[in-house]
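input
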Amino acid sequence: MSDPATKRPRVGLFATCLVDMFRPSVGMAAARLIEYADCEVVVPHAQTCCGQPAYNSGDRADAKALALQTIAAFEGCDYVVAPSGSCAGMLKAHYPRLMDEGSDDHARASAFAARVHELVSFLVDVRGLSDVPGAFSGTVTYHDSCSGLRELTIKSQPRTLLKSIPGLELKEMDDCEICCGFGGAFSVKFPDISNAMVEKKTANIAAADADIILAGDLGCLMNMAGKLSRQESKIACRHVAEILAGELDDPPIASSDDKR
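output
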């Protein structure tokens, strides 16, 4: 738990698979923001996937095994923070549902879930942050990811921190709360519907006339980046943590391999 010498909370950073494999700079930005909120950051090496792909596919046995592994990996942390509403939603809302009511595993999962937070929600709602170390001059628009908005009620928190950055102008796009069409396996199972959804999303992004589209989930960002690149758009895609932390040296998020 927290270091008695410093009284700083010990925060376990759940890096997520997509961040680890495709965008490590998001993890570095998240760590910088957590440290800026006067916390100690630890990144357990034993963490793997949160189990969401298995869970969404009906494989509860493997999802439960991954959940128990994750819970064990983050023992001793005061909080567990993920730069993803999707993964944080899995850890917080679904881990207890994988366990038998009244079992020791259910009690462990429930105690674990109570310590889990999405990154920006943690910064604002738990640590009371009202400013950030990032600096940016330009216009941005924001996409509210489904899991963050609907499972974790994340809406005002990123906007509060974005508006604290001098020179940043936030232009809200139409239907910012509407799904981008990614949805993990949804985009694979229903590609035509997914493509129609992301086309509407990129049209709204373009109409907002912003330099950057931001979001709190890398899956959404990769999906939107893929469509924008195929439309030859100049709008950059960034995780909100990158701009809040001032970690903008890396190139914008690359397009996916999906050629829709």
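quick obs: The chain is about 50% helix and 10% strand.
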